[in-house]
Amino acid sequence: MKLDADLIWHDDFTHDAYDAVILPGGFSFGDHLRGGIIAAYSPSMKIVREMAEKGKPVLGICNGFQTLIEAGLLPGALLRNSTLKFVCRWTDLRVRNRTSAFSCSFANDAVVRMPIAHNEGRFYADDELLDQLESENRVVLEYADENPTGTSRGIVAVSNEKGNVVGMMPHPERASDIALGGIDGLKVFESMLEWAAC
Amino acid sequence: MVNQVFSVEVAISNKPQARDPEGETIVRDLIHKSGFDSVKEVRAGKLLAIKLEAKDEEEARRKVMTMCNDLRLYNPVAHSINVRVRQEP
After folding, report:
1. From the candidates A104, A142, A171, A190, which is the catalytic residue?
2. Nearest CA of chain A to the CA of B2: how many Å?
């Protein structure tokens, strides 16, 4: 897969010159107060918001997912894992939605393997919000089997209403090369390329 | 009216339906194991102690509530907050 990409420091992301943007994982601002909340106030988020409003693909992975939630671009909350442990392992995931910008290339009901690595990734929403997300087809990925972090209904990835903004706790970039242990994550990025045509 | 300094404490904790595994662990694995059977529940959370200037207690509380809601000092989907105002001596 050939993609032209730039790695940009958030302070240098000052105008929308791209077709898509990915907010990676990490520990921005030390997770102080709450994962992603201080990053949500970075001036770069203004550009991310503009791109989201224009319908461009916007992906948040792990800390990026937290940032998108705290910036109001995605619903719900990401709390401390119910086990209170940093969970770092490969997980089996079911693709629930094939209309989002980052899942449209997957096969129907695909079960894929990607690693998770986080302490604060328990997706939570109350029943009313969960029912709404289900009925609007905005649940993108869920644990296929075990739920090692205690997320609501096993959910690990959701989208906005238009489907162009997605947040996911698992790391597709760490499942994109045989040398890393698997390539199921590649389809997340293929989806981004094909989304306009999906 | 002259501004005074107020200490406002914001306690942020998980709503009951979001579960509180930290509080549960503290009760089960620390408190009950040490024999304090009378403890029914512990809720763990985060405390923000905010010192600010305001003309009175009501304004101090209002400013802090505005910050809590507008700046998302807590996530209303999963957290509840308890706000307490003290006037600095």
Report:
1. A171
2. 32
Q: Is B73 on the interface with A (CB under 8 A)?
A: yes
Query: Out of A50, A62, A88, A136, which one is annotated catalytic?
Result: A62
- A57 assigned to some structural domain: yes
**Residue B43 burial (10 A CB sphere; 0-12, 13-18, 19+):** middle
The residue segments making up the domain with residue A172 are 10-194
Say what the pTM is: 0.93
| A17-42 mean pLDDT | 94
Q: What is the pLDDT of residues A73-115, one digit of tens each?
A: 999 999 999 999 999 999 999 999 999 999 999 998 899 999 9
Distance from CA of B1 to the nearest CA of A (A): 34
Question: Residue A149 sits in a domain of what CATH number?
Answer: 3.40.50.880
Indicate the number of domains in chain B: 1
The answer, for B38 touching chain A at a CB cutoff of 8 Å, is: no
| Contact residues for B8 (Cβ-Cβ < 8 A; gap 6+) | B49, B50, B51, B52, B60, B61, B64, B83, B84, B85, B86
- Do the domain assignments include residue A1? no
| Owning domain of residue B65 | 4-87
Domains in chain A, number: 1
Contact assignment for B18 to A79 by CB distance below 8 Å: yes
Residue A5 in domain: no
- Are residues A102 and A163 in contact, defined by beta-carbon separation less than 8 angstroms? no
